[in-house]
Amino acid sequence: MGYNVVQKIISSHILEGEMTKGKVVGIKIDQTLTQDATGTMAYLEFEAMNIPEIRTEISVSYVDHNTSQMGFENADDHKYLQTIAEKYGIYYSRAGNGICHQVHLERFGLPGKTLLGSDSHTPTGGGIGMLAIGSGGLDVARALAGFPFFINYPKVIKVNLFGKLSSWVSAKDIILYLLEVLSTKGNVGWIVEYGGSGVKTLSVPERATITNMGAELGVTSSVFPSDEITFSFLKSQGREDGWKELVADKDAEYDRIIDIDLSTLEPRIATPHSPGNISLVRDLAGKKVDQVCLGSCTNSSYKDLMTVAGMVKGKKIPSGVSFAVAPGSKQVLEMITENGALSDLISFGARIMESACGFCIGNGQAPATNAVSIRTNNRNFKGRSGTQSAGIYLVSPETAAACVITGVITDPRDMRMKPPEIIIPEKFKIDDSMIIKPIHGEKDIRIYRGPNIGDPPSNEPLEENLTGEVIIKVGDKITTDHIMPAGIRLKYRSNIPKYSEFVFEPVDTTFSERCIANKQEGKANYIVAGLSYGQGSSREHAAICPSFLGVKAVIAKSIERIHWANLINFGIIPMIFEDEADYAKIEQSDVLVFENIAKAVKDGDIFTIKNKTKNYDFNARLELSTREREILISGGVLNTIN
Ligand code: MIC
Ligand code: SF4
Whole-angstrom distance between the N-terminal and C-terminal Cα of the chain? Predict the structure, then answer.
């Protein structure tokens, strides 16, 4: 039997384990990326490993999330990251150079390579035929040190694309359709591979829009083959030397196949507050819009911005709408500046933002109370925009432009205009002056540490018995934005004691102080959750800060992949209800007794928990690999390294 694209990349990178579904494999990581919001902690962890220089082929440290610099914290973090990059041989992409995923695609990504990034949207690189995976910072730190990255050998879904998109329907509508089919939960352990004759109708940035939002499906990664279109993209970036063809063998097998006839797709929209709530744009047509935002790592390419500029050219923005535009990279911004498209956007009424994450992570542009905000982002979790009462809707750039022109939700097919014809230049503007190149070998670099930068927290080895309280009980689809809010709290990412004050802030503002009170009395804290706990971001702070507050276990109906790994890395035991009915019986404040927990973590699959308050026992599953068991017993990865 031949190999599919995923199997081809894994088989050429396998360092430990075997290619059997469900079994753990350790793969070699060729490239890593970090961004500043997760990067400071990742590099503090890397420093703790005492390795003189990185052991990957290419590693890049991007500054794109925390660029608002309200206070000294962000600027201090940037200086820390720059000195770390100099010391350890890492490329440093300065603030203003663009969003990590967009820049990585343009300047570093290569077909057939593996990429591990401390950001959940790292699979954007799948658009160029990489096996690109998001993880917590600690796993990136390990990869920098040359250790393998462990995944469960995946099941592969083939998404068979055929036909051609109709006018006004775009790549975003393909992934929104797939989110309608697969939803945001229940896809842990899968990788999506795109194939079929429709692949050749999509450019690399369009493919990257699709693989980017694979993160919202909760899959491990998403990947396109590498073909002549990939070659042209690399050539336009002056990097064709790195191209290689990568296609599935004719007799490759898949665990599931989903057919999508591109010609039947229509413009879609994700409605509040989940990227999985999909409707047709037409079904919401006429709803008043207050804000439109164009940007984020999903849709901020040259083609995306040119399309919108072409649609708004010569028009004026309606008085009730605000329009923010954040180009994905300096390259995109410079190109639309030079060809005049930027001026068309400004003349229409756009507010031009820095090439950074910005509004996507709630860094500015918070909408008004109860506002309707139409965005080209990938996430619309409640409150993420900075305004709890606002409703965020996710759409394609074409739909966003139609909405900002009319001031109401509008299907671009109803615009009575022709789609702008965008000619993609054969050569893109290449200027890497905002990327500081690494110097290898001996050098004397002093790492800069501002007052905001602390040490990675330490944790005790797992105790034999634990008694404690269900400190919070939450429902299904709790995202890392619920657990560890970003936005105005982002600047504390390098300061764990301070950031820990805001754990679960959007859900329960007393969480942190209640945890600390228990911790001081020597009691454990437990989190009880429903399905798909820890969706969304890779931010390991959603595990580090609870660990700092004395959380010892999460008992849930299911837990998402990246968050699962982060919990283990920081010594919190992930447990799954054996019988989901037990979730309903348990209440917040119940006292739970974990007898012989260390022994169970060592070699048990089922663990019996005593609910002392209600006087009954229930079972939880410990679905752990040998490696994960060792880490938990030690109290986290950092305790296993030195
Ligand atoms: C996000 O989109 O939520 C983020 C901010 O990029 C995160 C990373 C972080 O929290 O720093 C992600 O997607 O992993
Ligand atoms: Fe940045 Fe938003 Fe992309 Fe996250 S999803 S990397 S915040 S642009």
Answer: 43
Looking at residue 205, its pLDDT comes to 98
Q: Verify whether ligand 2 is closer than 6 Å to residue 394 (CB atom).
A: no
Packing angle between helix 228-236 and helix 204-212, nearest 10 degrees?
100
Mean pLDDT of 530-535: 97
Phi, psi of 471, deg, nearest 5: -80, -25
Ligand closest to 100 (CA) is 2
Give the ligand 1 atom nearest the CA of 119: 14
Question: Best substitution site from 296, 378, 538 to test ligand 2's pocket, by max atoms within 8 Å of Cβ?
Answer: 296
Residues linked to residue 621 through DSSP beta bridges, in sequence order: 576, 606
Distance from C-alpha of 636 to C-alpha of 49, rounded to nearest angstrom? 14
438 within domain boundaries: no
Q: Which atom of ligand 1 is nearest to the CA of 384?
A: 3
Note whether residue 367 is domain-resident: yes
119 touches ligand 1 (CB under 6 Å) = yes
Q: Is residue 443 part of a domain?
A: no
Kindly state whether residues 334 and 475 are assigned to the same domain: no
Instruction: Kindly give the distance from the C-alpha atom of residue 209 to the centroid of ligand 2, in angstroms, as a whole number.
Output: 12
Closest ligand 2 atom to the C-alpha of 296? 8
Cβ of residue 486 lying under 6 Å from some atom of ligand 1: yes
Atom number of ligand 1 nearest to Cα 378: 2
Integer CA distances (angstroms), 46 to 39, 55, 121, 145, in order: 10, 12, 22, 7
Kindly give the residue spans of alpha helices, DSSP state H, lying in 183-296: 204-212, 214-217, 228-236
Strands annotated E in 425-505: 435-436, 466-473
Residue 642: per-residue pLDDT? 60
Domain assignment present for residue 296? The answer is: yes
pLDDT digit string (tens) for 350-388? 999 999 999 999 999 999 999 999 999 999 999 999 999
Report the residue count for the chain. Answer: 642
Neighbours of 340 (CB within 10 A): 11
Q: Does one domain contain both 19 and 161?
A: yes
